[in-house]
Amino acid sequence: MKVTQEAKGLLMDALKANDASCILVREFKSCCGTQLNFSLAKAIDGDQIESIEGVPFLMDGSIKMKTEGVTIKTENGQLFIQDENASGCAC
Questions:
Q1: Closest of 1, 6, 13, 25 to residue 73, by C-alpha
Q2: What is the residue-level pLDDT of the chain in tens, covering all 91 positions?
Q3: Could you give all domains of the chain from N- to C-terminal order, each with its CATH number?
Q4: How many CB atoms lie within 10 A of CB 91?
Q5: Cα–Cα–Cα angle for 58, 33, 20, nearest 5°?
């Protein structure tokens, strides 16, 4: 996963404003297969936080592999997640 400097600033501001300590990455099933879901979270003791470009992320190993083609960036001042592995399904 890659995080641009502009996106890092927005993510760090969001973490601070929401009293969160990390970005939680999970996957969920949809009609198009599995998709990644990003949310703000508070880590608990024992969580293994990984810093990517200085941003704290919480995800398990199987999800980490699925984030290989993901870039978090900004477009028009808003966060945008680009996933090279997305299915493109429009169910």
A1: 6
A2: 999 999 999 999 999 999 999 999 998 887 777 788 999 999 999 999 999 999 999 998 888 888 989 999 999 999 999 988 766 665 5
A3: 2-83 (2.60.300.12)
A4: 6
A5: 20
Vertex 34 angle, CA 22 and 90, to 5°: 115
User: How many C-beta neighbours within 10 Å does residue 31 have?
Assistant: 8
Rounded CA-CA distance 68/58 in Å is 15
Report d(CA 38, CA 81) in Å as an integer.
9
- Predicted structure pTM score: 0.86
Strand ranges inside the chain, DSSP E? 2-3, 22-30, 33-41, 49-52, 55-58, 70-75, 78-83
Helix (H, G, I), strand (E, B) or coil at 25: strand
